[in-house]
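Duplicate of #3305? Posting structure anyway:
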């Protein structure tokens, strides 16, 4: 082949031994292609450096362009590929939203402790200015393939990445749950970067306040202080710990909360001087009832209010699990709750459920809506 000639769909089809229509169906993420065939074609696309023309890319972007949220439906990026950002978070920075999350685009396998899992791929990042349409910025923290001893090796657990900006150091700080395949080490991973979507430098891991740490989130308060909230004591309790000025370590100031309640997947936000903490029960990949609590101090004490969900399957959190809650820029009293709708036998195809939060006084309500847009928050 002429090295100066652009690789075409026909070239890919010839190498794969399939029709050009089959390659097009893979490029357009059509479901009617066998998984092994799809994976082989995707491999060839990378190896042969296939790149669609600008016109073709624009057509794809128009085809997948969204103007609303569709909870539980397939959510594609602007190139038509399903978004891979599970257990993630949103960072708003200089007019752009960044969505970080676990890339689970790899075959699901059996796991003796939780039934199913996948090999680690790394942490993905997507960007958007409207929250509906997302551009894939790639892996900002890829898994390590060639060193089985590394904490980011593909055989390990890399979950629930959360990113905050430190005003003092002007660094973006990423926290994540790191673990062995059998979930025995339960440590907090730490990575830093000079820009929101750059290549994050992995700094290692630690045990916050000498405790185990599994599901986690990080909350940055209005005064610039940040706190790590994580399931501890084998998920029996939830710790809230103050972070150091550079956000790279805990200070030793912490509290134990929801003791023996077995809560995980914390999502925290602050509204009108009150702190809200949404959690799920501990049932592996299977859904359960969400629960939220209120506090006047993030360190507690926390008052349990109950399940904020309303609508079909509210007692199972709409078959999903909490991931993150964030305020919407440009709107007053507007918050979106992010959930993962896990598909345990094909984890990479798990869906996202984003829903608006409404308030009745201090009471938080998350009601199921089949389709909605930001106009729900007013002008």
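Output from current build:
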């Amino acid at each position: 082949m002429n090295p100066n000639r652009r690789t075409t769909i026909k070239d890919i089809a010839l190498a794969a031994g399939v029709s050009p229509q089959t390659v097009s169906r893979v490029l357009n993420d059509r479901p009617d292609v066998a998984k092994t065939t799809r994976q082989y074609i995707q491999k060839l696309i990378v190896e042969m450096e296939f790149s669609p023309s600008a016109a073709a890319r624009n057509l794809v972007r128009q085809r997948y362009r969204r103007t609303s949220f569709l909870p539980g439906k397939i959510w594609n990026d602007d190139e038509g590929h399903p978004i891979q950002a599970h257990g993630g978070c949103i960072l708003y920075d200089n007019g752009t939203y960044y969505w970080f999350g676990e890339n689970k685009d790899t075959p699901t396998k059996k796991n003796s402790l939780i039934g199913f899992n996948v090999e680690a791929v790394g942490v993905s990042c997507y960007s958007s200015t409207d929250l509906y349409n997302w551009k894939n910025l790639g892996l900002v923290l890829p898994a390590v393939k060639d060193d089985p001893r590394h904490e980011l090796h593909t055989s390990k657990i890399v979950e629930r990445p959360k990113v905050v900006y430190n005003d003092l150091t002007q660094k973006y700080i990423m926290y994540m749950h790191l673990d062995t395949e059998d979930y025995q080490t339960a440590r907090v991973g730490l990575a830093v970067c000079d820009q929101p979507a750059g290549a994050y430098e992995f700094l290692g891991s630690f045990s916050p306040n000498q405790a185990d740490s599994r599901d986690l989130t990080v909350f940055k308060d209005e005064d610039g202080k940040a706190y790590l909230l994580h399931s501890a004591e084998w998920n029996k309790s939830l710790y809230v710990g103050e972070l150091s000025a550079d956000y790279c370590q805990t200070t030793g100031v912490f509290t134990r909360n929801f003791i023996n309640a077995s809560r995980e997947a914390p999502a925290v936000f602050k509204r009108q001087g009150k702190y809200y903490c949404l959690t799920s029960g501990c049932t592996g990949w299977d859904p359960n009832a969400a629960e939220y609590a209120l506090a006047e101090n993030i360190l507690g004490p926390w008052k349990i209010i109950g399940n904020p969900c309303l609508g079909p399957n509210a007692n199972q959190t709409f078959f999903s699990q909490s991931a993150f809650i964030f305020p919407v820029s440009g709107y007053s009293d507007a918050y979106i709750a992010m959930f993962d709708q896990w598909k345990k036998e094909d984890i990479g195809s798990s869906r996202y459920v984003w829903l608006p939060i409404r308030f009745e006084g201090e009471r938080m309500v998350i009601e199921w809506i089949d389709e909605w847009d930001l106009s729900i928050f007013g002008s």
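Confirmed duplicate; merging threads. The two ends are 56 Å apart (CA to CA). The chain has four helices and 23 strands.
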